[in-house]
Write a structure and sequence with these properties.
The protein is mainly alpha-helical. The protein folds into two domains: 15-69; 80-130. It is 70% helix and 3% strand. It is built from five helices and two strands, in the order αββαααα. It is elongated and about 105 Å long.
Length: 132
Amino acid sequence: MRQVAKPIPIRQPTKSEKRQIMQMLEECYDTDSECYQQGDTDDTIADVLNVMPAWVVELREEFFGPNGGNEDMAATLLELQNWKKEAQLLIKVHTSAVEKLMGVVDQADDFTNRLERIQKAVGPRNVKKAGL
């Protein structure tokens, strides 16, 4: 009979690692805004401390806040939303300009068609005489 291997328990942070994570969270996480300050994230803290990112997430969620984002992300999102609004406005402006231009092209087509009808009515000899 084949034995089923027992799963290896996932390593848990030591007390020292937990203290380091908590200390770093105190320095980097803004509890009022419920996000990291500047460009910090769970991963950047984990990298600096050389710990598992999941440990940082767990302690942050339990003691600080649910948001793993940061001020840079929030500012970038706001900039992107403003840029999108501006782009939509430009689309409206240029769509209107393109529609007007298409009207001018349609008028030019009408003039071309009228001139071609006149040329056919007058005949090629008279067109040459007229310099058209």
